[in-house]
Design a protein that fits this description.
Elements: E1 6-8, H1 14-21, E2 25-27, E3 46-49, H2 58-65, E4 69-72, H3 73-82, E5 85-90, H4 95-107, E6 114-121, E7 126-129, E8 136-140, E9 155-158, H5 166-169, H6 172-183, E10 191-195, E11 209-213, E12 221-228, E13 231-238, E14 241-247, H7 254-268, H8 273-282, E15 291-295, E16 300-304, H9 309-322, E17 328-332, H10 337-351, E18 356-360, H11 376-379, E19 386-390, H12 395-400, E20 406-410, H13 419-432
Parallel strand pairs: 1-2, 3-4, 5-8, 5-9, 6-8, 9-10, 10-11, 16-20, 17-18, 17-20, 18-19
Antiparallel strand pairs: 6-7, 12-13, 13-14, 15-16
Helix pairs in contact: 4-7, 9-10
Length: 433
Amino acid sequence: QGKSVAGYDRMETPLTKALVAEGAKVHYEDYVRLVPAEFLDKEKTLVVYTPAVPASHSELQFFRQSGFTIMKRAQLLGEVTKTSDAVCVAGTHGKTTVSSMTAHLLRQSGVDCNAFLGGILKNYGTNLLLSDKSRITVAEADEYDRSFHWLQPWIAVITSADPDHLDIYGTPEAYRESFEHFTSLIRKNGYLILKKDAPLTPRTDATVTVFTYSESEGDFHAENIRIGNGEITFDFVSPNSRITGIQLGVPVKVNIENAVAAIAAAVLSGVNPDEVRAAMKTFGGAKRRFDFQLKTPNLVFIDDYAHHPQELTASIRSIRQLYPGRKVTGVFQPHLYTRTRDFADDFAQSLSLLDDVILLDIYPAREEPIPGITSGVIFDRITSKEKVLLKKAELLDFLENKELDVLVTLGAGDIEHLLPAIKQLLEKKSIGK
């Protein structure tokens, strides 16, 4: 659009480097003096922030005190959804994959779309897709801080509503109520695609059509599932049609259900069966979502963003199905003190599905430490025969001296910054095997 862009982040990442390469001005220290002069004119500057920025942030305080126009990212996304046909994907788990699949299905069809996503699509190398010919916008709808209440969906997808973010919501009931309120925001004559058996009572307008879905049941579901030789194919079934012979580009069992939701949204948006088959086969996935880093006959390395107990369980079980009988080692970096406190038992139960657990310190993100809450509260409850508690700085040396078969890194923190070094280390080990 020809606008100047500047911003702050806590540390340099591949994303911020890409932004700088495209002309953005990015700094990494919280000093008002580092804000470029051209952005100090409040009549010409819009300030956008995310929930990750604390209220104590000096630059944010400066903009507030100086009377700048300030919006949460979710508010801005809400403005975009007001003026387009928005497909909004919400849920505790699966929303990045489902929204990414939906965007790819639309992009590869004659329908096309704009998309604001929570992960980098491997097919496009970005989390932002823009179109000058489509009215449809695919948006990942984040429930943290009730951000998704700013959105105005035409089609809403809810993949799950397992309690999370209890630091914000307080109780599981309040968390679920937030999703129920989200359903009330769907515009007249819109659609809700709801995971079957999700513990929600929709509050949709009488003109909104409500569908259910799951892998094997619901208005939308899969039949004739075939898994073998590293491939997954299935038929997509809807109330009045069937699309046969769909092959998953990312052949992980959990993606069957994700694909059912995405195809449902795409079909309601006008994508035809041939376009569905072609696009699903070429979907490359999103970075950090069951992301193969290395795949050799004797050594496999997968990275996954899983950071909630149910996500960990789904990820580990998918690995077990892909590699039966092989030793699976998991490196997990817990994300947030509150989540560790609230789900310690569940985390331990999920991680105990691994043969070997390497547990790192908690990644705090936006939080201050909570007395008595460390990774140890999870570690002590893990029943795997092999387990170790490490600092992140110790991980590479530990892996260098460890016999590995299938390795998975898990978590939503900064463990991703170690991926290139881990991959390089494992490539050397693989050659030596």
